[in-house]
Design brief:
By secondary structure, this protein is α/β, with parallel strands linked by helices. The chain has twelve helices and nine strands.
Length: 310
């Protein structure tokens, strides 16, 4: 089914017509027309030097642009949460994303909590990995300004790198005019975005994430075993990692379960992870599932939440 795209985002594009994605998010909205799907995503600059980036034979943005080609074939709109340095350091790859008619932009920190040592100390001393309130506000402003200078568009949605939701997050983002923040994971629980008294909506992930639950790149079974022993990490889906085919089936089961329960489903997908797993073969099955339903932009998901709140 063709996407339902807000006119405000139906703009022309330049370049080779293929945008880039790093991670993606799906939303189901129950209504008379059946479940509606909203796909969003994160973009990180190559200077971050992630394990996925180090194991990939092309850049992260290049894997993302290939992934968008799959979305274009299925006419699925997407929202990208973008680190500010993507606009500053990698504009040649970022431009076809920012100007693509299927794309809505959101913020994803300026440099993704680097230098890491500062944020570790801040977390230990202040109980905030994001840093003190003024640091968070500066970071968000830098990200907004980087996007504005390149695109002339104001970003109104936010997701922190690593879902790092701090004690000042809502207050800072609401003060700067953001409408919705998508941090954290939550299996079950709320049926959609939740209003926060600071003045914006929170919208956690409620479909099994990909990166931390998939074997790929450096995340071999041995690496995962050592990592679990050191950090004892878990989320609402447990601590287990899967091969791509098994993970795809879990994703589809989660989406069907949420749909049956009238829950708005938020799903995160990292295209670079999908590329490293099997060159997008597994995720294509998920996208085929999404293409069977009418799709929304993240802006439209927000507008529905506002209407429901009254």
């Amino acid at each position: 089914m063709r996407p339902c795209v807000s006119a405000g985002f139906a703009r022309g594009f330049a370049g080779d017509g293929v945008a880039c994605v790093w991670s993606s998010f799906v939303v189901f909205v129950h209504g008379d027309e059946g479940p509606l799907i909203c796909l969003t995503g994160d973009l990180h600059h190559m200077g971050l030097g992630t394990g996925n980036q180090e194991h990939c034979d092309i850049t992260e943005l290049q894997t993302a642009r290939r992934f968008l080609g799959l979305l274009e074939e299925r006419e699925i709109p997407i929202t990208f949460f973008v680190s500010g340095r993507c606009f500053v350091d990698e504009w040649s790859d970022m431009q076809p994303i920012a100007e693509h008619p299927l794309v809505t932009l959101g913020g994803h920190n300026f440099s993704c909590f680097t230098p890491e040592l500062f944020h570790r100390v801040s977390n230990k001393l202040l109980g905030s990995y994001n840093g003190p309130k003024w640091i968070q506000e500066r970071d968000a402003r830098q990200t907004m300004e980087a996007a504005w200078k390149r695109t002339g568009r104001r970003i109104e949605f936010w997701r922190n790198h690593m879902y790092m939701h701090g004690p000042h997050t809502e207050a800072v983002l609401a003060r700067l005019g953001f409408q919705m923040c998508s941090d954290g994971t939550e299996r079950g629980g709320a049926k959609g975005p939740r209003w926060h008294e600071a003045g914006l909506f929170n919208f956690p992930i409620n479909v099994i994430p990909d990166h931390e639950h998939l074997f790929h790149a450096e995340r071999t079974p041995e690496w995962v075993s050592r990592w679990q022993a050191r950090y004892n990490w878990t989320d609402d889906w447990g601590s287990q990692s899967y091969e791509i085919d098994e993970w795809v089936e879990i994703v589809l089961d989660d989406l069907r379960r949420n749909e049956a329960n009238g829950v708005i489903s938020n799903m995160i997908i990292h295209p670079i992870t999908m590329y490293l797993c099997d060159r997008f073969k597994g995720v294509a099955k998920i996208l085929d599932f999404l293409a069977e339903h009418q799709t929304l932009t993240y802006s439209q998901a927000y507008e529905r939440a506002v209407a429901e709140r009254g």
